[in-house]
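Quarterly update from the structural biology core.
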Amino acid sequence: MNEKEQLIQNLNSAMPIAQQMQKIEDEIGSIEVQIEKQKKFWGGMKVVAIIAAIILVFAIIAIITGEKFKAGDLLGLLITGFIIFIYAMHLKKLKGEQQRIDALNNQYKGLQQNPNLAWLHDKYRTSSCIHKIAEYVNSGRADSMKEALNLLEEDIHRQEMEDAAAFGAFYGAQSGR
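Predicted structure, tokenized:
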């Protein structure tokens, strides 16, 4: 079996793993988008929850000192307690989502250690790298692992330069340069 045939065989055994990795990456991305949306909404609610907690402290002090309550005061306390409760539930949900991300990252790391990827350096054990290498081989751009990795490194470098140029253009536009 020549080098290209071996590479194709290795890629064929790696593709199901790369697909599982991609699903994990997509799920993590989806959870992170949800977290960001929630942070935007709950950022303002954090202030409301802090104010509600302060009101609740003053209400407890009023109870301890024996001040009389009106119906409106009680309603205010109930609303305050509800706001704090909702915010606490939000924090609990965020913690659960972060734990889910941690579990997915551990699952991803386990896939990276799969014996079917032993032929590939750790640096390249990502779904995007495996798919790119397969693309280079299948399109005829690479006939060996060395050629495929060189193409991959060139693409990575090109993308980094494009990202840096885009950032520079954005920063320049923002600063009036």
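Residues 3-175 form one domain.
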